[in-house]
Design brief:
about 140 residues; alpha+beta; 6-stranded mixed beta sheet; 4 helices
Length: about 140
């Protein structure tokens, strides 16, 4: 890939199926809109759902240990990153804010996410409880 864009100038004109973009949420306050975290994925919506995972509950993005970049899912990383994925070691579970809620943009540690009972601790948006079935793709278990 190797594409680079100035998102501040061209975001609305980019084909979101092949580039990363800033997750946006209608109604967010101005401070949040000016300080969005870039999310990479295929055919992303404004709450980080992608072509692979797009139910109402699929609203998290995960920062990958290999590149410190947020992706909508493992498959999006496989499709877009030019390197193999690396899982987070347990040493980082309490310190690394590697999970992003696509509804409110809140970031949380891996332990906070795993203990959150499938909902955002900040806005209470529901997360897909079946994500736990593939935590081993992202986190050392």
């Amino acid at each position: 890939m190797g594409l680079a864009f100035d998102y501040s100038l061209t975001f609305d004109a980019l084909p979101i199926s092949i580039v990363s973009y800033y997750a946006r949420r209608p109604g967010s306050n101005v401070a949040k809109r000016n300080n969005m975290i870039p999310i990479k994925g295929l055919e992303l919506d404004e709450e980080t759902r992608c072509t692979h995972w797009h139910s109402n509950l699929d609203i998290i993005a995960i920062k990958f240990a290999c590149c410190n970049e947020f992706y909508a899912c493992f498959d999006c990383h496989e499709a877009l990153a030019e390197h193999p994925p690396k899982r987070w070691s347990k040493d980082y579970f309490d310190t690394e804010k590697a999970i992003l809620c696509g509804h409110c943009q809140h970031t949380m540690t891996i332990n906070a996410y795993q203990k959150a009972n499938s909902q955002c601790p900040n806005c209470a948006a529901a997360f897909n409880p079946r994500c736990s079935l593939h935590w081993d793709l992202y986190f050392e278990m």
